[in-house]
Amino acid sequence: MIKDIMNHNADAVAGQKEMDALKKYFPQCFHADGVFDIEAFKAALPGGTTITDETSGFNWLGKNYARMLTNMDTTTLIRPDEEHNAKPENKDSQNVYISGDNLDALQHLVKSYSGKVKVIYIDPPYNTGSDGFVYNDKFNFTAEDLAKRLDVSPERAERILSMTRRGSASHAAWLTFMLPRLSFARDLLTDYGVIFISIDDNEQANLKRLCDEVFGEENFIAQFIWEKRVNRENRSETSVRHDYVLCYSRNEAESGMHRLHQLPMTEKALANYSNPDNDPRGPWKSDPAHAQAGHGTQSQFYTLIAPNGKRHELPSGTCWRFSQKEMEKAIAENRMWFGKDGNGVPRKKTYLYEKERGLTPETMIFAKEGSTNEKAKNDLKELFDGIAVFETPKPVELIRHLLKMAFKEGLAVDFFGGSSSTAQAVMEMSIDGSNMHYILVQLPEPCKPDSEAAKAGYKTIDEVGMERIKRAAKKIHDENPLFAGDLGFKHYTLEEPKEDTLLQMEQFDPSKDLLSPLGVEDFGIETVLRTWLVADGYGLTEDAEEVMLGNYKSYWKGDHLYMICPDHDFNESSIAALMDKYNGEPFSPHNIVIFGYSFGFTHREELQKNLRTLKDGNKTLTVNIDVRY
Known about the structure:
The protein contains 23 helices and 22 strands. It is of the alpha/beta class and 629 residues long. The protein has 5 domains: 1-55, no CATH class; 56-134 and 169-263 and 362-494, Vaccinia Virus protein VP39 (Rossmann fold, 3-Layer(aba) Sandwich), CATH 3.40.50; 136-168, no CATH class; 267-355, no CATH class; 518-628, Transcription Regulator spoIIAA (2-Layer Sandwich). The strands form 5 sheets. A 10-stranded mixed beta sheet has the order 1-17-2-16-15-3-4-6-5-14, with helices on both faces. Strands 18-19-20-21-22 form a 5-stranded mixed beta sheet. Strands 7-13-12 form a 3-stranded antiparallel beta sheet. Helix 7 (143-150) packs across helix 8. The radius of gyration is 30 Å and the shape is elongated. 34% of the residues are buried. The model has no long low-confidence stretch (mean pLDDT 88).
């Protein structure tokens, strides 16, 4: 499979995904030689469609390079943490933690979770110059190869490569880093799914333009302003008390769904409701009965007469919220309040039952709702027995506030996992009955040698993140002993094959009747199986069933039967057992997937021959053999 991916990546160019989409939906616009006919495409569009050559464009050095990366696949394998995953609290968990580069992780995730994620929250590097962001990637293109792939001059190709190799922290480098990750993130979201992205002023403007391009301007929901600090910072020329959270949906226009949910009523909001006059409609609060004059029509300017005959004139610059006829009806129905003695300023009753949907989200997120950076750091420090293991954790309260706007059940993803605040937020929301799960991704980045985390014995950031989840889960369980929800997680690590393994893959010729020196032991059966399960859409939490074919062990999941083990136990009795299963049991996988390095040519041919015989006897049966390298 990795060899197949390497061959695919060797031909990857920018725009290939878009071209594949055009071929899928507009095959009539392609000539036999593959040339795209723009005039045929125009003719296929509805009459009256406006077509223009003008474009506002958003370009930077490395944009085509970033687009090319969205057309490449990862060569990493998914290695399960078998000891951790087998523990009682983890073995049935639907939560997932991935240690690895998030671009690799996203390339795996889209194969199983495309269109299935309700909400994504990420806190990417802000590119402040002091937050450690530098662009580096693992690809070793030559300037000549890159110039050909991107259709640019060798000089421009060299400039792009220089940026990706030297560890640049420029705006262009940051955008090149973010584009493929956001493109894959968009693919993960459901049509009505949303993404929240934390950012500050360093890249806010660039991020907004990038998201407009990736998600579409029409899918912009809001730019939230979060009060991250409540105290004045006197060390700098200007005390910055806020960050931003950009929010986009996947496809609001077509989904027809509400993009954000109403927020639940807070205790403070509920405290405003009472029923001093025993109104049969229940608790209410009073709101102003007038509005700004500029918003009113002629029918909203009049003298209001209270039930006791008192005349109420409008304050300067205002109008009544209702026309005179509507106001008289509201008074008659006791929907207006004039104070206990009937002489007060007229106010409109707003009933609690009218607020059952909750509160409309506001773009200002104050510290009382989203907490602060300082509190987030102190909360994490308390969780780790007084050790400040992470410098810049995001508040659990902020993420919980955002998640509540987006979903009450389903899957949340955070591919800049950091200190795992998102995981804790999801677990805490589950206490209230929400059916949510998470997938977190974090690069195994070494902790700085002089950091508190390193001094406490943590080698990498993902170690800190996983330990935070375990400690938060224990705290939640101790405080809620009757809670029986999911507080565990499955753990996987993304691994690149070794250089000598890659070389042997390149040299292996599957057309010859020779076994490769490579074997399943070079990768691990569980690693190959999990990588294939994800690639075939079964995800990271569903397991395959062991199926014995004589003495040969295979693995069955859904529409796939996986043969990974070496073929020395695979013989005629194994083939006979396989044929019996197809003929007798409720067993009908349409794909038999073979680990090509373990199966010789003779065994593959024998299997093909028997399957042809089987299909001759059952014309409705379709079985494909998929040999993967």
